[in-house]
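Recall the central idea of this unit: under ordinary conditions, the amino acid sequence of a chain determines the structure it adopts. In this exercise we apply that idea directly, starting from the sequence alone.
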Amino acid sequence: MEKIHIEKNTVQETLIIPLFGRKMCTERFPNLFQDSKAVELINRLDYDFSTMEKKAKSPTYQFGALEVAMRENDLMIEVKEYLHRYPQAAVVNLGCGLDQTAENCDNGSCTIYNLDYPDVIEIRNNLIPCEARVFNIATDLNDLSWFDSIDASHGVVFLAAGVFYYFKKSDIQTLFLAMAKRFPKGKLVFDAAGKRAVKIMLKTWVKEAGVTSIEDYFSVDSLSQDIEPWMEHAKVSSKGYMLGYNDLKDSSVPRFFRLLAKAGDGLMKMKIVRMDFLERTK
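Accordingly, the structure predicted from this sequence is:
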């Protein structure tokens, strides 16, 4: 099969960084994580991975890759739980990039939708051709017209990985409330972090975007303070991002990584948030 060339310093290049992390974790922590689709796609790319491979020897880079892997693992657990109850449901990956978490949850009867900006979907269409029951949708998530493209007649579960940190609180509130109203009995799962962690994560991006403050951007220190007061038509819960679904007590994981994971879930308030949208009485 002919290799697909990836240009340096392009959107394509930024998309393969988390992809490389998932491949690395598949090889580095095989007992904890497997993403054969990421490995397959990386092997199809014509790209000089030497810089990433050099960075991959760094404990900091390895832990960052483990964070990416555990996030995908956590979201897959939640998606599969929903599909166990609603096997023909729609699985919607919000801000998908080149992520194939939804496809990794495919039970043979669900319908999969991958949503992202038009330029990203164009790249995805070239690299990952849609198979049966898979649809790629080019859209801005804040343009709620994308709701009309989702067939939720048999249920719907939404997932978002590393996406909502870049949204303003007001936009998140508008989006979540509209989703809850449009998709009762649906489910949304996503990763979130406290304000301290979000400031660290967005520091470079905020400067480049010319944003003077990130106080308006979405963070979750406490469900009871930051989500539940305005999200009345959903049951909201959370688990630790790194240790909530897996204790990482595997011989391949350094003890220091487990300490970092504990700090992430605790001090940085990193978490996986689950929202079960409630049916409304008329």
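The mean pLDDT is 92.
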